[in-house]
Each structure stands twice: as structure tokens, then as C-alpha cells.
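Task card 7
Instruction: Convert sequence to C-alpha cells.
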Amino acid sequence: MSPPARRARPAPEEQAGQAGLRRKLYRVQAAALLDPPDGELIGFLAENYPFLFPEGAPRPPGADFLQTLRVDFTHLFILSSPPYEAALLDESGHLNSKTTDRVTDFYRASGYDPGRGSGGARHSSVAAMDHLSVELEFLAHLAGAEEEAWRAGEEEGARARLAEAARFMDEHLLRWAPLYTAAMEEEAETGFYRELARWVREFALEDRVHIEEMRRKGF
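Output:
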């Protein structure tokens, strides 16, 4: 009996494509969690990610539909538990605490400034840089840097970005976001935020497994 065939090593272009897709999905999730939704965002999501609207989404979304989502946004992220790592993990329970400092130190060590680039202007609305949206935007940044490294033939650079993403998820995002999004899913009053919570949680957990498989197999 012949041994099972070894899976061919993915080409750098395929690796780059996977990283680019991960960058795109993290960036979409970050945008959806950041501010009360407007018609442009909901229209884009309804067109490209219809599974987020189990009851269906009006096209274009009307004022009543948007108002319902904005009320739910306020309920979930302002009146309930705010989406900050420190709010769940820091012993003080305060924002901009030692937990926040550890997150921002990680950003700086990776050469990332959340006040600049694609997410910079958007993140002016957050109270601290350990907001769930900012952490997802950081993972998008790492995936984008990984994509560029694959396309440039810089395999070691791509691997370094994968290692950074794994460490950030282990030390930060996955220590609190699964619990937070599970509570968010339970408390949400709209199908949109229930499905968004489930998507963010399941994608992050699956991506962590994907990264580990990439690193273990030497891809």
C-alpha cells in the first residue's frame, strides 16, 4: 500500500491570496463593529455578506431599519459592556489601564500606529486602542503585511507576520473576544448583530487554527 501523498506546498501567490482574504474579512468586521451603522455600510454588507441579515435587509436600507440597528448598537456597546479588552480583563475594570498599555505596546513593537493608515480616521471615535474593532484592524494590518511579503518573495517576513498574529491572538484577542461576542450574540435584539457576533468569534477561532497549521507544516 502506497503512503498517502504529501500535500503540495502552496505557491507564494496562493499564500498571498489567502492572506489578502483574511485582511479583507478582518477589515470588514472591524468596520461593522466600530460605529452606529449608516446606509452605506449596511448596503455594502447586505450586498456582499447577506448571511448577516437572517430576516433580510431592505435595499437600500430605510430609515426605520437603520434606526432599529442603531438602537441595538447603543444597547450592546454603550449601555451594556463596552467592547474593550481592559473592561473584561483588567483587574481595575477601567479603560486605558495596564491592559490597554500592553495592547498598544504590542502595536508599537509591530510597527503599527492605529492613528494612521486605513483605520486611523475611523478610530478617532474609540475611547481606547484595545477596542475590539481596533484589535481586528490590527490583525488586518498583519495579514496585509504578510500578503505583501509573499508577493515580494520574502518568506521569512511572511512567517514573522504569521507569528505576530498568533501571539497577538493568544495574548490578547482570544482571551476575551470569544466570551464578549458570545454575550453579544445572546443580548442582541437584531439578527444582524447576532450574526455579526457569531461571525467574528468563529472566524477568529478558525483563523487561529489556520495560522497554526501554516506554521506547523512550514508553509
